[in-house]
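Supplementary Methods. Inverse-folding protocol.

Structures were first reduced to a discrete structure-token string of length 476. This string, shown here, constituted the complete conditioning input.
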């Protein structure tokens, strides 16, 4: 019974891998074209762009996926609703940009706001076509669209940077991605079970999904503030240059999550929703997926911690050296977030958005306290340390609620599987560390070669794990 899930996950990861490699390549180019301060300016406004996009979504995507049947009229009515919402929010965002100019006190955001406001409309329009592809698990097609979108956007941003538009050139990325992705997704949704959406007059169909969507939206809303308040406060009280450094550190930390958790998550709800009556099977799949994610993410986070200096300089260049101490701290969050980021999908599978909201509210409270603590001391590293502590606490409360009130099963087997994954991963990390210390004097000072040599040092650990797994059946 587990085959459909892992088949969907395999398609999702395969599709996402190429997308993230291209985004990674684009990120390295952007880091060499724009300064930390220019990145900080865009990051300071992008935080609020995400909020307005969230208001447009209002939990529509997961709510539609949760429905067993969805008619053409319902689809078209909600598609029209997303257009109306997008236009209203775009106008409100442009008006809001005047407040941003006052709030950050140092940059005129109106020119950037015009560009990103149009992008908000197209991102809103893209909700239904993208949901159509996700509902049918067309992850390869989505990945192809993302790749084309990223490459075209990169070309547009690079062109405007040559014309010396500065931060405005970087802002065109948001607009170009919104327009291009909508066009490609809309055409690609024609052969899905939901079908290609057209504008309809029956707007009242939004009521069909409002119950599920309201809890999903409430969770997304509080999750947004808990995940983005740090950027808002850093931009206000520590400065846009510091925000640029922080944003790049956090973004680099998220790339391993993108290649694991974020790539898997879209496959969970569409597949397991069909099996929600078999709770024991859902729990078994959850525990198995969590232990494998933890195992992989511990190895990745350890590698990033050891090689943080070379990784940062190789990807971003020498002007981003301030990222190094932050990425060392953020690497400790990778294992926690890798598991925690899948939790929402399992709440959705069990049709318990209200519990997801409660857990999200608790998470937001702890994260906000941690962020305010770091901002008070005016130190980026204190913010990072506070978030490590808050995410660890959130991990405990999230899974207590999930097993106690959602699955209604004993949590013991879940933690047992995680401890097994931690033990095996720790042994592999220890072997890698021994080899690293022995070979350190022989490693090249050339950054690229040094990273490749370090990757080769991991090979014996994986080899030993593979042999023991076949002999002892670790089952993680």
């Amino acid at each position: 019974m587990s085959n459909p899930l892992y088949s969907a996950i395999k398609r999702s990861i395969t599709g996402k891998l190429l997308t993230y490699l291209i985004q990674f390549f684009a990120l390295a180019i952007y880091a060499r074209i724009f300064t930390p301060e220019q990145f900080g300016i865009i990051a300071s406004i992008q935080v609020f762009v995400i909020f307005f996009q969230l208001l447009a979504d209002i939990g529509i995507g997961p709510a539609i996926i949760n429905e067993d049947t969805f008619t053409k009229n319902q689809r078209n009515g909600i598609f029209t609703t997303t257009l109306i919402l997008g236009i209203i929010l775009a106008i409100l965002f442009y008006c809001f940009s005047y407040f941003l100019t006052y709030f950050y006190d140092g940059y005129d955001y109106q020119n950037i706001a015009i560009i990103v406001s149009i992008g908000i409309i197209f991102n809103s329009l893209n909700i239904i076509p993208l949901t159509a592809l996700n509902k049918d698990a067309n992850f390869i097609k989505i990945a192809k669209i993302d790749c084309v979108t990223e490459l075209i956007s990169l070309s547009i941003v690079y062109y405007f940077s040559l014309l010396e538009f500065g931060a405005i050139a970087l802002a065109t990325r948001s607009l170009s991605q919104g327009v291009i992705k909508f066009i490609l997704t809309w055409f690609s949704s024609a052969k899905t079970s939901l079908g290609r959406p057209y504008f309809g007059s029956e707007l009242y169909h939004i009521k069909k999904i409002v119950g599920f969507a309201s809890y999903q939206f409430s969770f997304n809303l509080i999750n947004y503030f808990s995940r983005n308040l740090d950027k808002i406060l850093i931009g206000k009280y520590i400065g846009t240059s510091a925000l640029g450094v922080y944003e790049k550190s956090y973004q680099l930390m998220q790339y391993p999550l993108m290649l694991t958790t974020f790539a898997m998550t879209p496959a969970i709800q569409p597949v397991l929703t069909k099996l929600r009556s078999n709770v024991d099977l859902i729990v078994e799949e959850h525990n198995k997926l969590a232990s494998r994610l933890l195992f992989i993410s511990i190895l990745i986070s350890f590698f990033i911690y050891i090689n943080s200096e070379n990784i940062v300089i190789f990807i971003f260049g020498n002007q981003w050296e301030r990222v190094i101490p932050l990425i060392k701290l953020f690497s400790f969050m990778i294992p926690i977030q890798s598991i925690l980021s899948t939790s929402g999908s399992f709440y959705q599978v069990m049709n318990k958005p209200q519990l997801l909201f409660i857990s999200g509210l608790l998470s937001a409270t702890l994260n906000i306290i941690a962020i305010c603590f770091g901002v008070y001391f005016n130190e980026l590293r204190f913010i990072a340390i506070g978030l490590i502590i808050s995410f660890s606490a959130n991990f405990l409360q999230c899974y207590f609620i999930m097993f106690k009130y959602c699955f209604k099963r004993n949590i013991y087997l879940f933690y047992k599987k995680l401890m097994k994954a931690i033990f095996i991963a720790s042994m592999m990390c220890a072997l890698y560390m021994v080899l690293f210390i022995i070979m350190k004097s022989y490693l090249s000072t050339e950054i690229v070669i040094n990273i490749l040599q370090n990757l080769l040092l991991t090979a014996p650990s994986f080899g030993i794990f593979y042999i023991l797994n076949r002999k002892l059946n670790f089952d993680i």
